[in-house]
Amino acid sequence: MVENKKKSRAGQLLLHIYFLLCCLFFIIPLVLVITSSFTDEAQIRLHGYSLFPRVWSLEAYSSIFKAPQRILDAYAVTAFTAVVGTFFSTLVMALIAYPLSRRDFAYRNGITVFVFITMLFSGGLIPSYIVNTQLLGLGNSLWIYLLPSLANAWHIIIIRTFFQSIPVSLIESAKMDGAKELRLLFSVILPLSTPVLATISLLCLLAKWNEWMVTLIYITDNRLYTLQFMLNRILLEAEFVKNFILSVPGASKMIDAKKVPTLSMRYAMTLLAAGPMLVIFPFFQKYFTKGLTIGAVKG
Questions:
Q1: Rounded Cα distance, 260 and 256, in Å
Q2: Of 166, 212, 230, 294, which one is least surrounded by beta carbons within 10 A?
Q3: Which of 42, 37, 79, 45 is nearest to 62 (CA)?
Q4: Which of 63, 66, 62, 69 has the alpha carbon at shortest distance from 223?
Q5: 193-246 pLDDT tens trace
Q6: pLDDT over 80 at 121, yes or no
Q7: Span 66-297 CATH architecture
Q8: Is 241 exposed, middle or buried (0-12, 13-18, 19+ CB in 10 A)?
Q9: DSSP string, 174-187
Q10: Which residues of 166-191 are buried (b: 16+ CB within 10 A; e: fewer)?
C-alpha cells in the first residue's frame, strides 16, 4: 500500500510538472510578444528579443497611432462585421441544419450531399469576384463582409449532427403540445444546443476578426478597411519609409532609419489585433471541446 501511494504521488508530480511546462511553452511566447512591443528598436537590433527589455519604449504604439482615426475606423468595421456577421451566420446555419437533422424531411439526403459538395469544389476567385461585384453589387461596401460568408458547409454539418443527438421524444412532446417547427427550433432545439452554437460562433468570430483577404480584393475605400488589413498597411508604409531612407542619399540626415520601429511595431500590431480575442476566448472555452466533438463524431 505504501509503495502504491508513493508511485501514485510520483506519477501526479510528474504529471503536474508536464502540464506546468506546457503552460510555460504557451505563456512565454505571449510574454515575449508583449515585452517586444514595448522594447526600444535600437535595443532589439543590438541584443535581439528579450523577456526583460533593457530599454522600454512606446515608439511602436506612437507610430501606429499617428493617425488614430483610421485605427478606430478599422476597429469599428472589424467589430461590426465580426459581431453582426457571427450572429447572422450562426442563425442561418442553424436554420439550414435543423431540417437536415429531421429524419422526416424528404429531401434531407439530397440537400446534405449538395452542402457537402460545396466543401470540395468552388467556383474560384475570378467567378466569385464577378458575382459579388457585377451581379450582386457588393464591392466596396460592408455587405461584402457579411453576405458571401453567411454559411459554411462544415459548420452546417457539425450543427446538424448535434441536432440529431437531441432525443426525438423531446420533439414529439413539443409537437403534442402544439408547437410548430419554428417554435420547436427556437424554444426546444436551440436552448439545448448551446455548446455547438457557442463553438460555431467562436469559429466564425475568429475568422471574421482576422479577415483581410476580402478587404484586399473588394475594398478601395480606406474607411472600410478591416483592422488586420489596416495594421498590415501601416507596417508596409513604415518599411517603405525605412527602405527609402536607407536607399536615398541624404535622406538619413532628415530622418534616422534606426528610429523607425518596424521590428517592435510587428509585435505591437500582433497585440492590438489579438488582444480582444484573447479576452473573449475564455468565455467560450467551456463549450468549445464539448460542442466540436459531439457535433463531429456522432451520426
A1: 7
A2: 166
A3: 37
A4: 69
A5: 888 898 899 889 989 998 889 999 999 888 899 988 988 888 887 777 777 666
A6: yes
A7: Orthogonal Bundle (1.10)
A8: middle
A9: HHHTT--HHHHIII
A10: eeeeebeebeeeebeeeebbeebbbe
Q: Write down how long the chain is.
A: 299
Which range scores top for mean pLDDT: 177-181, 229-233, 244-248, 264-268? 229-233
**What is the predicted pLDDT for the residue at 299?**
42
Q: Which residue has the cell 478591416?
A: 226
Helices (H), the chain: 2-37, 41-47, 59-64, 68-101, 108-120, 125-130, 143-146, 153-164, 168-176, 181-184, 190-192, 194-209, 213-218, 227-247, 262-297
One-letter amino acid at 233 equals R
Give CA–CA dist 101/99, Å, rounded. Answer: 5
**CA-CA distances (angstroms) from residue 264 to 89, 269, 271, 274?**
36, 9, 11, 16
Checking 138-142 for CB contacts under 8 A at 24+ apart, the result is: 138/218, 139/218, 139/219, 140/218, 140/219, 140/220, 140/221, 140/224, 141/224, 142/77, 142/80, 142/81, 142/224
How distant is the alpha carbon of residue 4 from its chain centre? Answer: 47
Written as one letter, the residue type at 282 is P
